[in-house]
User: What shape does this take?
Amino acid sequence: MAKKVTRIGVLTSGGDAPGMNAAIRAVVRTGIFHGMEVYGIMRGYQGMIEDDIMKMESRSVANIIQRGGTILKTARCKDFYEKAGRQKAYSNLKKRGINGLVVIGGDGSFRGAVKFGQEFDIACIGIAGTIDKDIYGSDFTIGFDTAVNTAIQAIDKIRDTMDAHDRIFIIEVMGRDAGYIALHSGIATGAENILIPERKTNIKDIIESLLEKERRKKLVNLIVVAEGDEFGGANEIQKILHENLPKAEIRVAILGHIQRGGSPTGLDRLIASRMGYHAVECLLEGRHNVFVGILNNKMHYIPLEKAVKNKGNIGGEWMKIVKILAS
Ligand code: ADP
Assistant: This one.
């Protein structure tokens, strides 16, 4: 039986995601409710190595549930890839008697937590905080719903001008390895084509249908593309289309970082609160090296090792829906 966890650290690591604050709040307040001491670690693993750690009280997390970003800040930390860095981080936790750690981040942060938990006497629990929803084993990740809704709002606005001018618009959304933001925001805005890293795109088909529209003098078309698609993003696709439709007006909009920021949606606040609560419950039950995921609206504890990039599982049916609904 693992040692009882009485002092825990919480950190946010890797790319920020709206809803991380709600998760921090839930971890801090659930920990305090159970009589634990809770420590906030600044800038992810970097702050753990640099001993930038502070004790949190219930009031430390007041009025943050609605805020994007993360009050603990986040960072990418080279030193944590090295054993010496992780050793230093461990010493800083040990001197405070911290033996439980909640890591809120993406699959990279989870990989770091796996190593840390294997090497040292620290119970690590992950909370999936990533706008890309690219973590195996969970229907939700914190920030995804907000990012999709931000993209939808932006695309709706672009669609107005696209329709007014009869243009082709290629809109690039985030997703280097995962196409979920593109898929969800594209379907929700009635995109004619959605290009994602998980599936091959028949660009000839798209060109054919655009040429046909041109012949009918109805050349208006919305293409949503994930930044990591096989062609290399919206600008590259624009080049290919321009070569084949030299007279058409083809515009590009890259939504970029607006998708990361902003106040989290109700759904993101809710799942972050539930995950934060359950992460602490996990520690109380003596679990370690798992992350908290949601499957079919139930909490699941999944080994951190399994939380690899969830590539290639967007089935063909999704694309069929896109095609039929946009026809
Ligand atoms: P995300 O968590 O959003 O996927 P990253 O992939 O940048 O973000 O990972 C965040 C941090 O996690 C890295 O900067 C590094 O400190 C740590 N990390 C990632 N992979 C490993 C690894 N294989 N070993 C140790 N630490 C890692």
Q: What stands out?
A: DSSP finds ten helices and eleven strands in the chain.
